[in-house]
Amino acid sequence: MSTAFVPPAIAASDLSMRYPSRRPDSRDFVVNGVTFSLEQGETVAVVGETGSGKSTLAAAVAGMAETGEPRSPLIIGGELRVLGYRMRGISEHKRHKVTLRVGYLPQDAGSLLSARLTVAENVAAPIFARDRKFNQRDALDAVVTMIDSVRLPLGILGRYPHELSRGQSQRVAMARALILDPALFVADDPTSGIDVTVRAAILDVIRELQQRRDFSALVVTTDLAEVRRVTDQVIVMHRGAVVGQGQVDEVLDTARHPYVEGLARTRDLARSQENSRAS
Fold first, then answer.
1. DSSP class of residue 12?
2. Considering its fold, how many domains does the chain have in total?
3. Residue 150 is part of which domain span?
4. pLDDT tens across 13-54, in order?
């Protein structure tokens, strides 16, 4: 008995991207020849320094490429498929279908919450954007479940964003991104600007929710130490290109690129310091 084909959550093949330029012949690629795939239910972390192209890649996966906005990246080479949809030249109708199934947590997402809405209203907003006639009690039940899932007290439901800490705001934004139970979650540097004592908790929430809800996840970070809290699969980017891909330690142990070699040295130094403290 044959089983139905399930497309990868993400499939990129020789993907190249740039931002709109006044020079039509511009070859300033932000993403340059990237190839990788993410199967349904899997998690991968994308690591790289600022300017490596990782956030542009995340935005494209989340359906934010080729929207016509001034800062929307363009796919100019190769292919990108998300949940089976071809993203290059995608119609607005199909883009809407994709974005309904993708939860996107952009950089500093907590600061993007509406200041005029309460926590409950911010988290529920995607529900009513999809269906304005959705039952309000059912929506509240879904919001309560999500707020509890991201380890926030239900007492914050009536608060406004300015009454929250940065870590709380980030988790509220995460609840909002996941409220529609997406098939794919894209988190762009979810701990950026968050107090170091709270970062681990945010990453643990992502890992636990992924395991519980079985969505696919693409998590962008600049910190290799954070990768291990959510997955052992990594894509390392440098100046728009993939310079390492696979299981974290295998990538570092077989480093052939100077940037990856630097990451390996950082890992080895951290291990040495841990051993010194333990002895």
1. E
2. 2
3. 102-181
4. 999 999 987 565 556 789 999 999 999 999 999 999 999 999
